[in-house]
Specification:
By secondary structure, the chain is α/β, with parallel strands linked by helices. It has 15 helices and eleven strands. The longest helix has 24 residues.
């Protein structure tokens, strides 16, 4: 069917091959399990691997197809599930040792919908405990390594799934994004990720039975990581929509194409705070790709980015300070997450009164309205995922000032979370040191298909970078 190995194929290629019986689902799963066994020890991206269960599901898919039955549009396609997304096969640990036996009784809606489509969970993706850092490390499973440079962080918090996708262990990973946790690891790994609009994909838990902080309701989303933009679209089309359980989720039509105005606002250096030259070059390549594809490209900055990014930090830190008061957690965070939390809190003006906290949320409506007007003219905002290349391991724990520096680097990243907008992270080639570069394409509210359309045009011009044949040697403990 192809000269490429099965673990190198995309979601759509694998699904088509299995459905047409060019290859069996068992062969697909076995190829990915063998790739996991070969590569995962070097990068520690997957915390649990479902060898027996995945093979058993693959046998069921093959039996159904051999009997002439429809086994689903993603028959036999493997996917990984982040440690904080409910899957009845294993504990939803969120990277916490005390949650090592917390096996959910039901699958999260997004997992169930992929299972119903014939896809097969093959492993769990690593994350920092409680998803608290822009890195992937915890006391339960240890550190995930960046396959391009093991001395640089792989991003977080969906770092395990991004690295698994990048190295061919899976063509599809499921993660979530409260402050860039899908897009930043994708940027680090040289893959794609879709941060959907808020309210498009139901909660990572099967049922909401405990209070949910306001910032989690408005800032956090769940979404896919893949090597191809088209695969993001395939997965999102299956996972989105209300489920009768999550009250924050709505069903909005997801068009297969975009025929609206093709105008792009390019933000090379948000707020003029500086970007690495490799980042600026990546934005230039993406802008040229969009212009060549027929998009009208203008150099213009969207409104109120500094206020949006500042309020994201203040609201999120205020809620975390409340959550981490003595006695609020059953066990302490890991040393790394505790240090990061304390350093960040020291650098952030906490919203200490109800008036200040309520006022911050009230300002969100004003900022969102300004962006709504802006994106009526410029449906796509092209800018950096991060203003810097991925930092070396330990940078985020090097003192309070480092947390502010990272927040400044991620100013456009977290603005998207604050506003609940869709954004696709897409690679744009390698820099002079052989590290991935990338950009994000921010769409209007519920315009996920607009972001995907722009990302397709960038990918068509600049190509893909993964799967990585083998992780870079020199891993650190």
């Amino acid at each position: 069917m192809t000269d490429r190995l099965l673990w190198q194929l995309s979601v759509r290629e694998l699904a088509d091959a299995v459905r047409t019986r060019e290859v069996t689902a068992c062969a697909v799963i076995d190829a990915h399990l063998a790739r996991i066994d070969e590569v995962n020890p070097a990068v520690n991206a997957l915390t649990v691997v479902f060898h027996d269960r995945a093979r058993a599901l693959a046998e069921r898919v093959d039996a159904a197809l051999d009997a002439g039955e429809d086994a689903g549009p993603l028959s036999g396609v493997p996917f990984t599930v982040k440690e904080n997304i409910d899957l009845t096969w294993s504990a939803s640990t969120s990277g916490w040792p005390f949650m090592a036996d917390a096996i959910p009784s039901k699958d999260a809606t997004m997992v169930r919908r992929l299972l119903e489509a014939g896809a097969i969970p093959i492993g769990r993706g690593n994350m920092p405990d409680w998803g608290l850092r822009w890195d992937t490390d915890n006391d339960l499973f240890g550190r995930t390594l960046n396959p391009w440079d093991p001395f640089r962080v792989p991003g977080g918090s969906s770092g395990g799934d991004a690295v698994a996708v990048a190295t061919g262990m899976t063509p599809l990973g499921l993660g979530n994004d409260y402050g860039g946790s899908l897009r930043l690891p994708a940027y680090a790994a040289g893959v794609c990720a879709l941060r959907p609009s808020a309210g498009r994909i139901p909660a990572p838990t099967a049922e909401i039975t405990e209070p949910v902080a306001l910032s989690l309701q408005f800032f956090a989303v769940n979404g896919p990581i893949a090597r191809r933009v088209d695969d993001l679209d395939v997965a999102f089309a299956l996972m989105h929509g209300a489920d009768g359980s999550d009250p924050t989720t709505v069903t909005v039509p997801h068009p297969s194409s975009y025929g609206g105005p093709k105008r792009v606002a390019v933000v090379r250096d948000p707020l003029g705070w500086g970007v690495d030259p490799q980042v600026a070059a990546a934005i230039g390549r993406a802008a040229d790709a969009l212009a060549a594809a027929g998009w009208e490209v203008d150099e213009v900055e969207p409104p109120l980015v500094e206020e949006a990014a500042t309020l994201w930090r203040q609201i999120s830190t205020t809620e975390m300070v409340g959550a981490f008061l003595p006695g609020a957690l059953p066990v302490p965070l890991s040393h790394g997450s505790t240090q990061y939390f304390l350093d960040n809190a020291q650098e952030t003006e906490v919203l200490a009164s109800g008036e200040a906290y309520g006022g911050a949320w009230a300002r969100r409506a004003v900022i969102a309205a300004a962006w709504e007007r802006f994106q009526a003219e410029y449906p796509i905002v092209l800018g950096p995922v991060s203003a810097r290349r991925m930092p070396e391991i330990g940078f985020d724990l090097s003192g309070p000032a480092a947390t502010t520096e990272l927040w400044r680097d991620h100013r456009l990243l977290v603005t998207v979370n604050f506003l609940g907008l869709p954004s696709v992270a897409v690679p744009t080639g390698l820099d002079e040191d052989g590290l991935p570069t990338g950009v994000q394409l921010i769409g209007p509210r519920n315009g996920d298909h607009v972001s995907l359309a722009a990302a397709r045009d960038v990918e068509a011009a600049l190509g893909t970078l993964t799967p990585v044949q083998a992780p870079v040697a020199g891993a650190v403990a």
